[in-house]
Fold:
Amino acid sequence: MDHNTDTTEQAALDSIHHLAIVVTDVAASVAWYQANFKCAVTYQDATWALLKFANTSMALVIPAQHPPHIGIQVDDAARFGPLTTHRDGTRSVYVNDPDGNALEMMARA
Amino acid sequence: MDHNTDTTEQAALDSIHHLAIVVTDVAASVAWYQANFKCAVTYQDATWALLKFANTSMALVIPAQHPPHIGIQVDDAARFGPLTTHRDGTRSVYVNDPDGNALEMMARA
Structure:
């Protein structure tokens, strides 16, 4: 396949909606990230938090909830499998890349 | 600390320059990502590749080179330690968050 190898076509590229890393203490990690970065807390509870950066977001999740993953908004996410609707209203399906890295294929809206 | 908790101040937030995941076969992974996403190959050799998405980039690195990490452009990156100049001209220092997640603190230019 040959998708947009011309880097001038930025508007046509897919967007990385968020990246999720695993933390053991959400409140402590939110405090650490806020102390070290200019980021905004979009959501926070005891099980996860979402930190907004200028160009994408970082999710801090506890181990029981999700694997570390990258959420990418794609056309026709359902081509990767049945979509699940999440508590925040997004719809997605998890897929592994050839090395087992977890990717969350997200519908655009 | 209280950095920009007002989400209207997007221009002041730090940017995520790239996220790096580990792959075993760079060429095979580049082909897989291009088959599944609209992304552009900014750089590729046998040891790593850089894929451009609409809002940030994804680095595919072989295990010997780097840990999985998140590269974030920050003010005064040297506050995190001595900066190293890399083969692509960027200057950065690696730091672990409280849970051992690797972060690359990058100077802005």
